[in-house]
Amino acid sequence: MDTEEFRLPRSRKANERLHALIPGGAHTYAKGDDQYPENLAPVISHGRGAHVWDVDGNRYVEYGSGLRSVSLGHAHPRVVEAVRREIDRGSNFVRPSILEAEAAERFLATVPTAEMVKFAKNGSDATTAAVRLARAVTGRTRVALCADHPFFSVDDWFIGTTPMSAGIPATDLTVTFPYGDLPATEQLLSRHEGEIACLILEPAAHTEPPPGYLAGLRALADRHGCVLVFDEMITGFRWSEAGAQGLYGVVPDLSTFGKALGNGFAVSALAGRRDLMERGGLRHSDDRVFLLSTTHGAETHSLAAAMAVQTTYTEEGVTARLHALGERLAAGVRAAATAMGVGDHVVVRGRASNLVFATLDENGQPSQEYRTLFLRGLLTGGVLAPSFVVSSALDDADIDHTVDAVAQACAVYRKALDAGDPTPWLAGRPVKPVFRRRA
Ligand SMILES: Cc1ncc(COP(=O)(O)O)c(C=O)c1O
């Protein structure tokens, strides 16, 4: 496909309809067309496995599917079959379904470091519940979150700390600590001695935890009497099915799961120590904590999806496959970028099962202009990749196709670097970051 000829007329119209009806033109900011090159934001018709089709009829190899939720690929047969079975038997009743016990047993067998679990729909429900529970059990008000991790919740305690804090009263109860820096975290805990209810972080993100870091954080939390919360929304079913906590062997007090847990069906989980979780229950004499209680939290077909996902992961060795696919992709992309002379500018980072890429300008600085140019090249080559986060549905041919598209995009990248200005290749405004104060 020639870049000049690659147009998405139906997607353009559909984006206009979306913006006329839905603020932001999407139900998740990270899916917005501002994240894509101008007039090149495909609107999806459907997906299967590692592929999606847009309303213009183009097929793409897709990465980062469903904001990392669809790690087995779209319409995965085992998941779809489990969902269909429950849909025919009813989705929501006036009393718990037996499936709630089965799904909880299954989850706690998969994540054996947790003793109790409560399900909800969105990750934010779970992280916010963790924060509330930590505040209730410690009697403290401050929350310390890791400043290097981009997202924890749609709720005020987190969004109030971002540039999109309009409408949120001061969130000075939220404080931050840097990832990987135990002395800085200890200083924070000492400065606010007796005030911090919890430390919340992703156990790992784009870098591996430094040796001893997670164990050190565990010790710090114990010493300062605060609750350690691992947000395993991303790591949960990518680092290992038992979470990053299963891989690194450090047990948090509470942890939160979502995304890949349902392979695209809505299910999240708050899991953790029995004595803490029980405060949301009926078997204690303390003040009760309102710990997750949602109309749709136990929707049967989503719980069935979660169980099918866990079976598939354990029986088919999915985390190992994600890792192997990611390694193959990273090697191919790095080789293509190097061959085209942009090895220092198109940089693949992260754990193999959770790859992202950086697009750096002539001075080695992150550049939205070069990201735009690179995304244009990928889209034109039939690759929809805001990241290189793999699904297990990819095959070698998909990865070869992706590497070819990357090579083409890198050739244009080189031209732009040589010209000292990417503007002529953008064909519109650059892509924008999600969190910014003004539209
Ligand atoms: C690490 C992390 N925590 C929490 C969330 C919130 O999950 P949800 O969008 O399901 O509310 C996200 C979503 O992107 C996330 O990446």
A few lines on this structure:
The chain contains 14 helices and 13 strands. It is an alpha/beta fold.
Topology:
Blueprint: H1 9-21, E1 44-48, E2 51-54, E3 59-62, H2 65-68, H3 77-87, H4 98-110, E4 116-120, H5 123-138, E5 142-146, H6 156-159, E6 174-177, H7 182-191, E7 196-201, H8 213-223, E8 227-231, H9 243-248, E9 254-257, E10 268-272, H10 274-277, H11 300-316, H12 318-339, E11 346-349, E12 356-359, H13 368-380, E13 383-384, H14 396-419
Parallel strand pairs: 3-13, 5-6, 5-7, 7-8, 8-9
Antiparallel strand pairs: 1-2, 2-3, 4-10, 9-10, 11-12
Helix pairs in contact: 3-11, 4-11, 7-8, 12-14, 13-14
Pyridoxal-5'-phosphate (PLP) is lined by residues 67, 122-124, 127, 151-154, 202, 231, 233-234, 258, 268.
The shape, in one word, is globular
Beta strands, count: 13
**Number of DSSP helices?**
14
Order of helices and strands: HEEEHHHEHEHEHEHEHEEHHHEEHEH
The profile of the biggest β sheet is: 7 strands, mixed
Q: Classify the fold: give the CATH topology of the largest domain.
A: Aspartate Aminotransferase, domain 2
- Bound ligands, each once: pyridoxal-5'-phosphate
pLDDT averaged over residues? 96
Please compute the radius of gyration using only Cα atoms: 22 Å
**CATH superfamily of the largest domain, called what?**
Type I PLP-dependent aspartate aminotransferase-like (Major domain)
Q: What is the helical fraction, as a range of percent? A: 25-40%
Structural class: alpha/beta
CATH class category label of the largest domain: Alpha Beta
Poorly predicted residue ranges: none
